[in-house]
Amino acid sequence: MKVLLHELTPVMSATEREASERQQQQRQQRQLAMSDTRRALVLDAARSVFAEKGVEGASIREIARRAGYTPGAIYSYFDSKEAIYAALLAESLERLNAEVAAARSFKSQPQLTLMSKAQAWFGFYARSARDLDLGFYLVQGLSPHGLAGDLNQQLNERLQDALRPCEAALQAMGLSLDVALRENTALFAHGVGLLLLQHTGRLGWVGQTADSMFAAYVEHLVERFNPGAHAAPRGLDQADLFGL
Fold it and tell me: Is the pTM of this model over 0.90?
């Protein structure tokens, strides 16, 4: 039997095989890093376009121009401007949830936990008008726009995740599930209203600040359901010497 040289397949040693696999992994990591960088550039460009023109007024072409890519290149990452918007909102909600999770909890003083967690989500949006715009679709105006299908549900659930610690604190204060949900929804609505007034400059003429009014609302909420238990902001800064 004749064996032609070109039919022979070289067999790599274990060392050569490991080196080849390592090189392939490194190439994949470089490609992934490059892809992440390009995706980040697209999102950064989209933020500025959405802020200026809203989602409805924005276009893939304009986002691509600001990112330094062609429209065709954008479509390799996102299939529509709504998908870009959803990615920005998802990123914002993850940062919101991280901030709420990092806020201090008080084991046997749920009224202080309520203040801490509520201040976390309120402060997040108070510091960033852009995140507020994204979170409530304000870049499209005040009409009830959203994203369709499962994606919209997933994003709404992530927003609810950031609010659940306040609801849990209200239940720990003795409220039933239904009442805790109602009061937490009212707290959220009140906070969002104050944030809108702050970011549109409507509070200055009455000499009030959104932070002080929100803190007062939470304190009154605590007093209604747990008389004598104060949720003063100073309590959040004191050392918890007894592990409370």
Answer: no
